[in-house]
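Good morning,

Attaching, inline, the backbone tokens for the sequence recovery test we're adding to the shared suite. The designed sequence is right after.
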């Protein structure tokens, strides 16, 4: 069949190399070639994009009537994706549940939705409906310099806030040891994680999941517990703050140079932090994200990327796009993405593939994030907030924390002020996007928070 007779499917995917230091090409490129061979009536065409700019690129393309059939968004752009409109003024994307329509296979490709890690899949539910299909996942984890910890008499990476404090106190007593015990970037995801782990909410309507979020709360007891614990670590000399918001590389360098024993970051950073340790003569281990000892641990909020399906496609094109996404998330491809780019597999069958191959036995640190997500029971708190104006709202959070750490601002008062400002941002977003008339989010509202 000539290419001109084939049904063309355009897929704009994010480049996984932007978040991991692994150089390998995305498995999607070879998967598309295989799919096209197996389904000669279709031609899936992959293009890769920067995840930070893709939402705005898609919105501008939609205005011209040139939006892709599949677009992959960073997880915290979910509300913006839901509010992006096509040239007809209707939502650009069709809910995934509606398109699949209960089928167990599409064009012979098994539907993998029921096999997905529930907390990963359900992050993308709104009012009970699955809006998009996740392709990759990540979780926050703790990277530990085990040489420093061993010298301090700490045998395992700390698992709770109290254990972190104790480990830092032990490190501080080491003759000639590092000046600080721990660091992490002043970055939105860690605040969201801390609140979720304690079972708290950041927005009303079940964190914006049973309806559009209309009220935001940044000074909850869960948020302030995290902020005050962090402040105490800093005041006691245990926490290294580089002075810059979102300074991942500064934290990584401090860990690599032995200036701290612990760094909290994304599981994706297993692509380079253990190697940095090896280059500098120390062993790195990965542990779960430390949680608040004083409340029951509610679970771990996911990160990652998800694929959205354009609405208004012909039935044949829609089925081709759906079938390709199932093929792309088949156990073999999901496992390969995990190996190449240090992602958590989105399906339990892919996890089983890695277990069966012995990959997790050889790379046990990569199993930590997979276990965190696979054992988490989803709730509105753990799934995290769906917020319009997310980037500007989260900037209020990190800005408040910066003042707490550098200007000794009082946490409750400063985060109450952040709440007032965030509410104004949310009100403005909802007024603009929800209408009437409904409108696609403005460029600043399509930005990825904190990046």
């Amino acid at each position: 069949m000539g290419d001109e007779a084939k049904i063309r499917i355009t897929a704009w995917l994010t480049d996984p190399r932007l978040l991991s230091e692994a150089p390998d090409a995305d498995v999607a490129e070879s998967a598309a070639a295989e799919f096209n061979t197996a389904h000669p009536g279709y031609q899936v065409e992959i293009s890769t994009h920067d995840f930070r700019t893709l939402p705005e690129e898609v919105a501008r393309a939609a205005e011209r009537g040139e939006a892709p059939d599949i677009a992959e968004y960073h997880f915290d752009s979910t509300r913006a994706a839901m509010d992006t409109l096509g040239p007809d003024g209707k939502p650009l994307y069709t809910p995934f549940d509606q398109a699949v329509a209960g089928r167990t296979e599409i064009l012979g490709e098994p539907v993998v939705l029921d096999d997905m890690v529930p907390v990963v899949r359900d992050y993308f539910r709104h009012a009970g409906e699955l809006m998009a299909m996740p392709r990759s996942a990540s979780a926050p984890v703790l990277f530990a310099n085990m040489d420093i910890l061993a010298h301090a008499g700490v045998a395992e990476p700390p698992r709770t806030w109290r254990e972190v404090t104790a480990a830092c106190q032990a490190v501080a007593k080491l003759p000639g040891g590092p000046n600080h015990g721990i660091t992490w970037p002043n970055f939105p995801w860690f605040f969201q994680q801390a609140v979720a782990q304690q079972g708290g909410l950041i927005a009303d309507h079940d964190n914006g999941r049973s309806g559009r979020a209309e009220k935001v709360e940044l000074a909850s007891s869960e948020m302030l517990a995290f902020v005050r614990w962090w402040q105490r670590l800093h005041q006691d000399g245990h926490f290294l703050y580089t002075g810059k918001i979102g300074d991942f590389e500064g934290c990584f360098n401090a860990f690599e140079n032995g200036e701290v024993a612990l760094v909290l970051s994304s599981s994706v950073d297993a692509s380079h932090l253990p190697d940095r340790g090896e280059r500098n003569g120390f062993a790195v281990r990965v542990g779960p994200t430390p949680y608040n000892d004083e409340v029951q641990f509610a679970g771990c909020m996911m990160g990652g990327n998800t694929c959205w399906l354009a609405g208004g496609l012909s039935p044949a094109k829609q089925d081709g796009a759906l079938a390709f996404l199932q093929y792309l998330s088949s156990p073999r491809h999901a496992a390969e993405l995990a190996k190449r780019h240090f992602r958590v597999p989105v399906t339990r069958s892919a996890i089983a593939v890695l277990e069966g191959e012995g990959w997790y036995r050889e790379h046990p640190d990569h199993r930590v994030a997979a276990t965190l997500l696979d054992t988490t029971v989803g709730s509105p708190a753990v799934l995290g907030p769906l917020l319009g104006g997310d980037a500007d709202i989260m900037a209020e959070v990190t800005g408040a924390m910066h003042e707490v750490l550098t200007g000794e601002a009082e946490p409750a008062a400063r985060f109450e002020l952040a709440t007032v400002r965030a509410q104004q941002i949310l009100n403005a977003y909802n007024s603009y996007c929800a209408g009437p008339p409904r409108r696609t989010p403005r460029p600043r509202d399509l930005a990825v928070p904190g990046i």
